[in-house]
Design goal:
The complex is a heterodimer of chains A (272) and B (221).
Chain A: H1 4-7, H2 17-27, H3 53-70, H4 87-112, H5 140-154, H6 157-165, H7 188-202, H8 212-221, H9 225-234, H10 252-260
Helix pairs in contact in A: 3-6, 5-7
Chain B: H1 15-26, H2 33-46, H3 48-69, H4 73-87, H5 89-95, H6 97-113, E1 115-116, E2 119-120, H7 122-135, H8 138-141, H9 144-164, H10 166-182, H11 188-202, H12 209-216
Antiparallel strand pairs in B: 1-2
Classes of the chains: A mainly alpha (272), B mainly alpha (221).
């Protein structure tokens, strides 16, 4: 008889690579990890990269130190991401996942409790103060997808530089990007918008490079104009954002758009 | 479960094996856990009475090993052996109904006793359901031992199973209802057992007082 336990297992952990491959050409030079998950040596895959070698080294050392916290429960290292076929391993994976989830939840909910939540008051459906325990997201497929999206954002040099530059206790709610909390209940649209905004904001910390501005624009053109209109409605705070303390000149167009509050300014057709 | 190795009914084993089991219960890392799990599984497949004991013993050894050195060699061996037997279950049933029902009893005890994060192991849920569904097939309902095994296990773990996956429980009970109503050739005992389990589940996994009296008290003439 076939192994029904294996074939019916929910929550497919595999298949991270196809999505990544899809993005590699556009993003490869600001990603600090290759497709195989290993940190890249400075200038390894993209010789045309202009990053200062000292910066890359520092970011790598920092990333090495940070390795533990960077790895997420779903993407736990060399242990096969595919659900195991044998029961022994399946149960072990179950156990580990539950432990990680608990630890994760405690960490995220713990840090949430001490911050004001203007940024997440998006849309009309969810409560702004979703008190822990009652309205947490627990659907595995959703959590996995959200974590994947978060990983894309964290797997950037910009993110690395950001967290080095601005330690958590110095972060200001509207100014500094905050990783969306995957355990909260949000609609799909709301979540996707939060991720997009977060990633756009992170670009402020991109390493200085010729392609930098194009990247920001690329990011923004990912959003349809509809979405951009909605963003203004959902995130009025965005229009009041102060200039982030960044030395990168390429983000200027984004900042100008912010101050004037007209979504059109964020589109590609904007000349500057 | 208790610590004292004397609590477990392992008298059916020879002295040497008894000693091995007792050591495994107290000091798992000092014994060959693969051998221990083999001994326990082998005996459970022969002796239905032992299955319950086996469940408790396994639970204790797993806890002890985890505590001692965070290991799970025993559990892993146990589960993989169970999986192997699961794959061969149809053949086991053909060979011996008794061995087959022993297997089902054992895997259900393991499901019940070996919890992970205070919940039954998800990996076992579908296999257990598969076994129970097999017991609810027409050919199995004709055999009293299989019906007996089925209802016994449902009494013990039905509620837990339903919580994990109510759809499969519904499917199982469709079979039971159909069997009860439509199947020719069932013994009256088999029908009684089926009726009782139907009422039991309908009552939220318990029998009302009157139903209990009906099924379980002696009929005085």
């Amino acid at each position: 008889m076939s192994d029904t336990a294996g074939s019916r297992r929910e929550g497919d952990h595999s298949d991270h690579s196809p999505a990544r491959r899809h993005r590699s050409s556009r993003w490869s030079h600001s990603r600090k990890r290759g497709i195989d998950g290993h940190l890249r040596a400075p200038g390894a895959e993209d010789p045309s990269e202009h990053t200062c070698s000292r910066d890359t080294e520092r970011s790598q050392r920092h990333a090495d130190r940070r390795h533990e916290s960077f790895t997420t429960p779903e993407g736990r290292g060399p242990v096969s991401r595919c659900p195991a076929r044998d029961w022994g391993s399946q149960v072990e994976q179950e156990e580990e996942k539950e432990r990680d989830m608990q630890r994760y939840r405690r960490r995220i909910l713990g840090s949430d409790a001490s911050h004001r939540e203007r940024k997440t008051s998006s849309g009309s459906s969810e409560s702004c103060d979703s008190r822990e325990g009652e309205s947490l997201e627990t659907d595995e497929t959703i959590l996995l997808r959200r974590q994947k999206q978060i990983n894309y954002g964290k797997n950037t040099l910009a993110y690395d530089r950001y967290i080095k530059e601005v330690p958590k206790h110095l972060r200001q709610p509207a100014v500094h990007p905050r990783t969306p909390n995957k355990f909260r209940k949000y609609s799909r649209r709301s979540w996707d918008q939060q991720i997009k905004l977060w990633r756009v904001k992170l670009h402020t910390w991109d390493p200085p490079s010729e392609k930098g501005q194009q990247q920001v624009l690329d990011d923004m053109t990912e959003m349809a104009l509809d979405d951009v209109m909605d963003i203004e409605l959902d995130f009025p705070s965005l229009c009041e954002v102060e200039q982030p303390p960044s030395s990168a000149p390429h983000s200027r167009s984004l900042q100008e758009g912010d101050c004037e509050g007209t979504p059109v300014k964020m589109s590609r057709t904007d000349s500057d | 479960m208790e610590n004292s190795a004397e609590d477990y009914k392992i008298q059916s084993f020879d002295q040497e094996t008894q000693l091995l089991l007792k050591t495994a219960l107290k000091d798992p890392s000092s014994v060959d856990l693969e051998k221990v799990s083999k001994i326990i599984v082998d005996q459970s497949l022969k002796d239905q009475m032992f299955s319950k004991e086996a469940g408790r013993i396994c639970h204790t050894i797993v806890q002890a090993e985890a505590k001692q050195n965070n290991g799970n060699i025993f559990r892993r061996n146990l589960l993989n052996r169970l999986q192997q037997e699961f794959k061969d279950r149809e053949e086991t049933r053909r060979r011996s109904i008794q061995e087959w029902t022993c297997y089902v009893t054992f895997i259900c005890y393991i499901f019940d006793y070996l919890k992970v994060n205070n919940m039954p192991m998800v990996a076992l849920m579908h296999p257990v359901y598969d076994c129970l569904m097999r017991l609810a097939q027409p050919d199995a309902l004709m055999k009293e031992e299989e019906v007996d095994c089925l209802v016994l296990q449902l009494h013990r773990i039905g509620e837990q199973l339903e919580k994990m996956n109510s759809q499969r429980m519904d499917e199982l009970f469709y079979l039971l209802r159909d069997g009860f109503l439509l199947q020719e050739g069932l013994t009256s005992m088999a029908r009684l057992l089926l009726l009782e389990i139907l009422e039991f589940r309908a009552g939220g996994w318990m029998l009302s007082g009157t139903a209990h009296k009906y099924y379980y008290s002696e009929i005085s003439d």
